[in-house]
């Protein structure tokens, strides 16, 4: 039985506890009696592992490891074309895809990477190899082999590797009194996926990305939380067969990194390719260009979307079903006791606390024409095209809701501070006041925006009045 919590996450907590108990389960006596009580020689562990996984035992001065050569597949990537995208490596740098399986989810000294999957391109062929640690004492040999596969000018390609895989490996090198392999750069695909594709997925896990973007459905896959227990069971004398599923899991992870690179190359590197991409993807790419300080290319992406006359922008991307439940219910009238009061600003998720909506709103909001027009208006101002920015904000202000009030304020700022039109700024402010009053009458007050408008209105009236007297 679980104890209810204030934030309503008792079911999630119970699920996590079950996983923890399964991973740390103490075997019954009849199971432990069957396991050898004396330490198993490392050579025996390596031979058993290699025989089960169809690999080979490699013996070096630093110890031994098991090498499993994966199949070579054709994954075509045009590197010069890929380099046009923000954050992508130069075309002349080799790419090394890397994924690890570990004995835990931390990067502290007690966590070991017992399986390292690597992949790289040889022409249009994507080759893979997996390195396995048969015993902790042989870690030095595994680390030396990993360093041999990472050239000085290489870029690592990972999925959440900046936050987990690579810091863990750096810690292992330090504990072994070795220098971590030097490389030229690191491409972590998790931020890329979040920026471009998260709007149409329930989450950004790699398996979700495979289903939604790559059309890959895994069968008989092992859950990540099971992996440490399978390896530790093998070290205690258990069979090596459960690790076969772990090796397949890692093999697919590495290959998915290459497929994601190919997807970016084929679908988003040119206006022609982006023409068939979902609207939200292109808008997310625009934001990636902004982060790379390439605003003109970001504007080009947004204008490509707005020029799609044959496709209704508002219907091009739908909110994932799992996320629509967090939005306020629109089928309940505002005056109903069942409706949550709207005091302005974004609503909040009742199951996550008052600030969670701010973290999820960027993913739950539909990429419609209004949202894209907002991004375009901001960008036009940023690049100094103030006249076009004023026209863009005027178009947004003609729409409904809170956004229109914000647009009138932005238009007033532009006219006053950039275009030198105080009278026009006063007119925009008055229009904003009227829009805010309408929302208040409908039961949607905007206290912060109203305070801004009142302050701006008084100042502009005094300024315009002084000019009229002069």
CATH class term of the largest domain: Alpha Beta
**Quaternary structure annotation:** single chain
What is the CATH superfamily of the largest domain? Ribonuclease H-like superfamily/Ribonuclease H
Rounded Rg = 28 Å
Helix content: 40-55%
Chain-averaged pLDDT? 84
Question: What structural category do the secondary elements indicate?
Answer: alpha+beta
Total number of strands: 8
From the coordinates shown, what is the CATH architecture of the largest domain? 2-Layer Sandwich
Shape: elongated
Strand portion: 5-15%
Main beta-sheet annotation: 8 strands, mixed
Cα-to-Cα separation, first versus last residue: 79 Å
Question: Spans with pLDDT under 50 lasting ≥5 residues?
Answer: 1-8, 26-35, 310-330, 341-364
Q: Number of helical segments?
A: 21
Order of helices and strands: HHHEEEHEEEHEHEHHHHHHHHHHHHHHH
Please name the CATH topology of the largest domain: Nucleotidyltransferase, domain 5
In short:
The chain has helices at 10-23, 29-32, 42-53, 79-82, 139-148, 161-175, 189-196, 206-214, 227-235, 242-268, 271-274, 279-291, 295-306, 313-316, 321-324, 356-364, 369-382, 386-397, 401-418, 422-441, 447-469; strands at residues 56-60, 63-69, 73-74, 95-102, 113-122, 125-132, 155-158, 185-188. The protein is α+β, with helices and mostly antiparallel strands and 470 residues long. Strands 1, 2, 3, 4, 5, 6, 7 and 8 form an 8-stranded mixed beta sheet that branches.
């Amino acid at each position: 039985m679980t104890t209810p919590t204030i934030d309503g996450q008792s079911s999630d907590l119970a699920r996590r506890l079950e996983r923890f108990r399964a991973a740390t389960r103490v075997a019954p006596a009849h199971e432990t009696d069957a396991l050898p009580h004396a330490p198993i020689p490392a050579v025996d562990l390596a031979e058993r592992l290699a025989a089960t996984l169809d690999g080979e035992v490699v013996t070096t001065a630093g110890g031994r490891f098991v090498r499993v050569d994966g199949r070579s597949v054709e994954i075509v990537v045009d590197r010069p074309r890929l380099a046009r995208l923000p954050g992508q490596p130069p075309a002349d740098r080799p790419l090394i895809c890397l994924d690890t399986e570990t004995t835990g989810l931390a990067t502290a000294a007690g966590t070991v990477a017992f399986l390292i999957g690597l992949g790289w391109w040889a022409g249009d062929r994507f080759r893979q190899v997996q390195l396995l640690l048969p015993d902790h004492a042989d870690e030095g040999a595994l680390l030396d082999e990993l360093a041999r596969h990472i050239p000085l000018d290489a870029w690592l390609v990972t999925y959440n590797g900046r936050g987990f895989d690579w810091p863990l490996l750096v810690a292992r090198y330090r504990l072994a009194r070795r220098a971590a392999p030097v490389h030229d750069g690191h491409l972590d695909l998790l931020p890329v996926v979040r920026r471009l594709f998260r709007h149409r997925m329930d989450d950004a896990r790699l398996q979700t990305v495979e289903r939604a973007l790559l059309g890959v459905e895994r069968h008989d896959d092992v859950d990540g939380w099971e992996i440490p227990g399978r390896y530790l069971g093998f070290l205690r004398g258990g069979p090596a067969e459960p690790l076969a599923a772990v090796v397949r899991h890692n093999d697919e992870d590495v290959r998915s990194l290459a497929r994601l690179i190919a997807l970016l190359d084929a679908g988003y590197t040119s206006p022609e390719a982006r023409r068939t991409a979902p609207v939200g993807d292109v808008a997310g790419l625009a934001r990636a260009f902004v982060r790379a300080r390439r605003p003109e290319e970001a504007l080009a992406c947004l204008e490509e979307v707005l020029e799609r006359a044959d496709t209704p922008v508002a219907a091009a991307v739908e909110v994932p079903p799992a996320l629509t439940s967090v939005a306020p219910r629109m089928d309940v009238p505002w005056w109903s006791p069942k409706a949550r009061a709207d005091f302005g600003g974004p609503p909040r998720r009742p199951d996550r606390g008052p600030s969670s909506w701010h973290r999820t709103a960027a993913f739950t909001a539909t990429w419609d024409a209004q949202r894209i027009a907002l991004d375009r208006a901001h960008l036009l101002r940023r690049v100094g095209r103030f006249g076009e920015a004023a026209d863009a904000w005027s178009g947004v202000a003609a729409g409904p809701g809170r956004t229109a009030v914000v647009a009138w304020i932005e238009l007033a700022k532009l006219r006053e501070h950039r275009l030198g039109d105080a009278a026009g700024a006063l007119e925009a402010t008055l229009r904003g006041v009227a829009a805010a009053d309408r929302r208040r009458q409908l039961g949607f007050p905007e206290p912060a925006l109203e305070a801004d408008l009142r302050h701006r209105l008084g100042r502009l009236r005094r300024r315009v009045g002084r000019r009229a007297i002069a």
